[in-house]
């Protein structure tokens, strides 16, 4: 099964993608994670990507489509979870073509609906494990009291450079301008399923499970 998790910054795409990986043996493809890796490469591309991400703007379609194309050539076991991709209509068309070329299709697009006030609270309280990427939140899912990641036991936690008020404002603008048109695009194709992303993590997971069948 191949699915897209679609939603604004902080909607919970990464949190729910990790659960689906564990529960359904799917492969998470997060373009945000790939780009964060690229920015540490020391290349000119990495430097440009870092600047764009820190401002809260979208990286070019060409770069992210190239990243996804590379990953689709690999093993995909229980299918792909596209997390944070596509984000523009050009990317959506490219994904359709890429999947077709690999003899597969998209099974569902899960839109995660969360209002802006909750997003700001979630993003400013987020941290992640520097080793395995487990996502924490100072309020709703605090780091364990022993200072070790509950998933892998590492003790280096990170906060993202773009998780500040200015970048977040721009990330939200980019979402509403360039990504939200994908809701209509996938609705028209009959692929869209909308879940309430405001509930507890477990409840959102249950709704996604129900939507996927
Ligand atoms: P990306 O890394 O994709 O960031 P994003 O879309 O802004 O989304 P986030 O990762 O911030 O949020 P999330 O929905 O994954 O939420 P999470 O589960 O962490 O992209 C970053 C940048 O890279 C972009 O701005 C752009 O520059 C570039 N980029 C990436 N993809 C691109 C593309 N395709 N094209 C062009 N540019 C691209 O949860 C957030 C917090 O909330 C956590 O603390 C979590 O614990 C908590 N939480 C989660 N669920 C719940 C819940 N149900 N209740 C309470 N708290 C919750
Ligand atoms: Mg994420």
Task: Give an overview of the whole structure.
The chain is an alpha/beta fold and 213 residues long. Helix content is 48%, strand content 15%. The chain is built from nine helices and eight strands. The strands form two sheets. It has a five-stranded parallel sheet. The chain has a three-stranded antiparallel sheet with strand order 6-5-7. Helix 4 (61-72) packs parallel to helix 5 (89-101). It binds BIS(adenosine)-5'-pentaphosphate and magnesium ion. Residues 7, 9-15, 31-32, 35, 52-53, 56-59, 64, 84-85, 87, 91, 122-123, 125-126, 135-137, 140-141, 162, 171, 199-201, 204 line the site of BIS(adenosine)-5'-pentaphosphate. Magnesium ion (MG) binds next to helix 1.
Outline of the structure:
The protein is α/β, with parallel strands linked by helices. It has helices at 13-24, 31-38, 44-55, 61-72, 89-101, 116-124, 165-179, 181-189, 201-212, and strands at 3-6, 27-30, 80-83, 108-113, 126-129, 135-137, 157-158, 192-196. It has nine helices and eight strands.
Could you list some keywords that capture this structure?
213 residues; alpha/beta; 5-stranded parallel sheet; 3-stranded antiparallel sheet; 8 strands; 48% helix; globular; binds BIS(adenosine)-5'-pentaphosphate; binds magnesium ion
State the separation between the terminal residues, measured CA to CA: 11 Å
Number of strands: 8
Return Rg in Å. 17 Å
Secondary structure class reads alpha/beta
Low-pLDDT ranges: none
């Amino acid at each position: 099964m191949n699915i897209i998790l679609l939603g604004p910054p902080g909607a919970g795409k990464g949190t729910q993608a990790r659960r689906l990986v564990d529960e359904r043996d799917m492969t998470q493809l997060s373009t945000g994670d790939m780009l964060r890796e690229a920015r540490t490469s020391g290349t000119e591309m990495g430097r440009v990507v870092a600047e764009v991400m820190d401002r809260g703007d979208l990286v070019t379609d060409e770069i992210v489509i190239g990243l996804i194309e590379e990953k689709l050539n690999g093993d995909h076991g229980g299918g792909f979870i596209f997390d944070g991709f596509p984000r523009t209509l050009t990317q959506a068309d490219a994904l359709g073509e890429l999947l077709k070329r690999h003899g597969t299709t998209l099974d569902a697009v899960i839109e995660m609906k969360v209002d802006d006030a909750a997003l700001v609270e979630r993003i400013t309280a987020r941290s992640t494990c520097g080793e395995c990427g487990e996502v924490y939140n100072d309020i709703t899912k605090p780091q364990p009291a022993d200072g070790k990641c509950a998933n892998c036991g590492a003790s280096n936690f990170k906060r993202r450079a773009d998780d500040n008020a200015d970048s977040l404002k721009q990330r939200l603008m980019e979402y509403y301008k360039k990504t939200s048109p994908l809701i209509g695009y996938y609705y028209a194709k009959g692929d869209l399923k909308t879940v309430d992303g405001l509930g507890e993590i477990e409840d959102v997971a249950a709704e996604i499970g129900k939507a996927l069948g």
